[in-house]
Structure formats: structure tokens, C-alpha cells
Design goal:
alpha/beta; Rossmann fold; five-stranded parallel β-sheet; four-stranded parallel β-sheet; 18 helices; about 15% strand; globular
Length: about 375
């Protein structure tokens, strides 16, 4: 723990809080979006929000891959799971997300579908090898962090000739989402969100590096600080953003230098480029249809595409109108603004994806912050 405790030291945290308080301009507000759900949970778990001045406002972004998956994509997975001879597998959070008609993969399993929880893409491949008489479909999901493991599994499947394995691909891209938040006219017209700076995601940046964020700093004049997950990482990154804003700078700074380089993981990026290519568009919960924001399999790997293999098509489905997840995901609302939060919608009875996922903002508020008076406008 000695390598972790140094990033959770209380005295250092209080010192950073004092420096933040001394450097903020009381005549203005600082609206900072933490894109990653891991940062949201760190902020609440360690009480970072309570140490910030009232005019430093953390805006929660769409950086939870489970949360941004639209209802229609989940319905596709449920449809596949209910087909005879299919084993559908995915990560634990995905099994509890409600699709249309409040049906989840867990409920589909109760109806007789063979739905299994796995810990990695290679677990899914092992299932296919263990059940050669069944079709094993891996519900692949995640940002750039989880895409390389999916690519690795597909390369192994092709090398070994595992023909009963396929994926339902829902891998999405961080830079496209940030760009959409900053420039989408529809979002500016509806629930317009003013963002003064971004906390860049940690694990995603380990893969893609800091270079992709340079476009946002230059094009939209918004500073980006790539931050680690520990509370002192987050507080130092907030201080770095405040200094940039005060000085009128808009640059990409890398607080998480112990893990992130400018160019990222070249091996992982090459593997992804071999297996995947860009989709023309992809629907995100809360952001709508975002161009070039997701991946699909290249022609060389098309045999492993569950959408083609089973002939299923995506159909947009309406959201639960009472659920505020879409507004929360684009930073236009807080979980406590939702009429369902903590009442009909809890971790035990989730009505929206933001309450199900371990990285969801609603789950963070419920677990760490629902009784606090910190929910500032």
C-alpha cells in the first residue's frame, strides 16, 4: 500500500485544497468536466468536492461506457441471448442494464437464455472453445481501454480457427465524445452546458496518449489535464486547470506522467487498427448520434461480427422519460435532480444505466454523496 498511500495523504490534500482556494478568482466560476466515471467515484469516495471552493463546480461527463450504450443496442444483445444455441457473455454491469420494457440480460436469463458473466474477452473465447456446438457471442463494450483485449481475442480466434465465436461490437471513442460535447449544435440548444476545462481520462490516455487532446485545446480553447485516479491526482489536476484558466491558457497538460505518454501504447493501438475501423456514426445515450465515434470490425474479421452473422439490425428505442440519465451523461443535470434518484431508482432496483454501472454518476452519488448538501447548482 505504500505506493498508494502517498497519493491519499491527508496533509498533502489539505495543502492542495488551500492552494486551490487561494488561486481561484472569487468573481467567476470554474466549471470543470471530469470525463471518466472513475474520476467521478474518486471525487465522491474521498470527499474531494467538499474540499473545493463553491465556485469550482465539477460537471460529470459521459465517460462510462456502460452508461452511454443506448437502449436499442442492449435490445440487440437480449435478442441474441434468447436465440436457441447461443451463449451470450459480457461483463457484470452489462447484465443488469434495463433495455426497453425494463428487460435486462439477467431477466432474459431468468426466461431461459444462456447469459454468462465474464471477466475478460479471453474468458469469452475459452467458452467458445469449451462449447464447440454452441454459438458464443461476446457483448464487447468499452472505450479505448478495453478495445485492445477484444482485438487480441479476435486475433487468437482467427489464428485458431474458432468459428463459433463472434462479438457484438460497442467499442466507442473518447475524443469524438469530447468533441461532440463542445461543438454539437443540438446540445448547445438543449440543456446547454458551459465547460471551462476537462479532466482527461487516465486509463484511456495510457492507450491513446495525450496527443489526441491537443485538438480540443487548440480548436475550442479549452484546457485539458490528464489526471490519475487517486484523490491527490485529481486535486492537483484541478489546480492545474484553474491555473490555466486564470492565465488564459488552453493547453494539454499531463498530470499522470507515471503512466501516460504523449503517443500512448503503440502496440495496443496497432492491434486495434488491424482489427477495427471507424463506424460512420453511432448513437450514444445522452449525446445522440455522434459521427465517427465508434468502431466496427474490418472486412478481414467480418466473420466474427455478430450483427452480420445473425442478421440483426439496430433500431433506436425511446428512453424512460422519467429517467434523467441522458441529461446527466452530457453534464446538464446532477443525479439528485432526477425525480427517481434514491426512490424508485436505487442500486438494487436500477431504472437507468447511471445507477447500474460501477462508474455511473448516480451510483457514485448514491454510495458516497446522497446525504451530503454538496449538490451545488
Amino acid at each position: 500500500m505504500r505506493y498508494i498511500d502517498a497519493f491519499r495523504d491527508g496533509d498533502t490534500g489539505r495543502g492542495l485544497a488551500a492552494r486551490i482556494a487561494a488561486e481561484v478568482n472569487p468573481a467567476r466560476s470554474y466549471r470543470l468536466m471530469e470525463f471518466c466515471g472513475g474520476h467521478t467515484h474518486a471525487i465522491f469516495r474521498y470527499g474531494v468536492q467538499d474540499l473545493l471552493p463553491a465556485n469550482v463546480i465539477m460537471v460529470h461527463g459521459p465517460g462510462c461506457p456502460v452508461c452511454v450504450l443506448p437502449v436499442g443496442r442492449l435490445d440487440m444483445a437480449i435478442e441474441l441471448a434468447l436465440r436457441p444455441g447461443v451463449i451470450l457473455c459480457s461483463y457484470g454491469d452489462m447484465l443488469r442494464i434495463p433495455g426497453s420494457r425494463k428487460r435486462s440480460l439477467l431477466r432474459a436469463r431468468a426466461e431461459g437464455a444462456d447469459v454468462r458473466m465474464i471477466s475478460s474477452s479471453m474468458d469469452a473465447l475459452a467458452l467458445a472453445e469449451a462449447h464447440p456446438d454452441r454459438e458464443v457471442v461476446f457483448l464487447a463494450i468499452g472505450f479505448e481501454t478495453t478495445t485492445p483485449p477484444t482485438a487480441a481475442a479476435l486475433r487468437v480466434a482467427r489464428a485458431r480457427g474458432i468459428g463459433n465465436f463472434s462479438i457484438l461490437c460497442n467499442h466507442v471513442l473518447t475524443p469524438a465524445a469530447i468533441s461532440n460535447i463542445l461543438q454539437a449544435p443540438a446540445l448547445r440548444a438543449i440543456d446547454a452546458v458551459q465547460i471551462d476545462g476537462f479532466l482527461g481520462p487516465a486509463h484511456v490516455s495510457v492507450v491513446i496518449g495525450s496527443q489526441p487532446y491537443e485538438y480540443f485545446a487548440e480548436e475550442f480553447a479549452r484546457p485539458v489535464v490528464i489526471s490519475g485516479f487517486e484523490p491527490l491526482d485529481v486535486m492537483q489536476s484541478i489546480l492545474m486547470l484553474i491555473r490555466q484558466i486564470n492565465q488564459g491558457r488552453a493547453e494539454v497538460e499531463n498530470q499522470y506522467q507515471r503512466a501516460v505518454s504523449r503517443h500512448g501504447n503503440a502496440t495496443a493501438k496497432a492491434m486495434v487498427a488491424e482489427v477495427f475501423e471507424l463506424r460512420r456514426s453511432f448513437e450514444w445515450r445522452g449525446l445522440g448520434t455522434v459521427p465517427y465515434s465508434a468502431l466496427k470490425l474490418r472486412a478481414a474479421y467480418a466473420d466474427f461480427d455478430a450483427e452480420q452473422r445473425f442478421g440483426i439490425e439496430y433500431r433506436p428505442m425511446p428512453e424512460n422519460k422519467a429517467c434523467a440519465c441522458p441529461r446527466i451523461l452530457r453534464g446538464a443535470a446532477r443525479p439528485t435532480d432526477c425525480v427517481l434518484f434514491g426512490k424508485q431508482c436505487t442500486p438494487q432496483t436500477p431504472l437507468g444505466s447511471c445507477m447500474v454501472s460501477d462508474e455511473g454518476a448516480c451510483a457514485a452519488y448514491y454510495k458516497y454523496g446522497r446525504h451530503r448538501a454538496e449538490a451545488r447548482p
